[in-house]
Amino acid sequence: MMYYFIVNPKARSNRGMRIWDVVEKELKKEQVSYEVYFTEYPHHATDLARVVTEGGDYLTLVAIGGDGTVNEVLNGVVRLEQITFGYIPAGSSNDFIRDLHLPVNPVEALHNILHPKYYKNIHLGQIIYADTRRRFAVSSGIGFDAAICHEALKSRLKNFLNRIKLGKLTYMGIAFHQIVLCKPELLTLHIDGCKTFQFPRTLFLAAMNCSYEGGGYRFCPKASPEREALDFCIVHGLHKWEVPIPLLAAKKGHHTRFKGVDTLRCRKARIHVDTPLAVHIDGESCGFQTDLDIECSKETLRIIAGC
Ligand SMILES: Nc1ncnc2c1ncn2[C@@H]1O[C@H](COP(=O)(O)OP(=O)(O)OP(=O)(O)O)[C@@H](O)[C@H]1O
Question: What are the DAGKc domain coordinates in residue numbering (predicted)?
Answer without folding.
Answer: 1-131
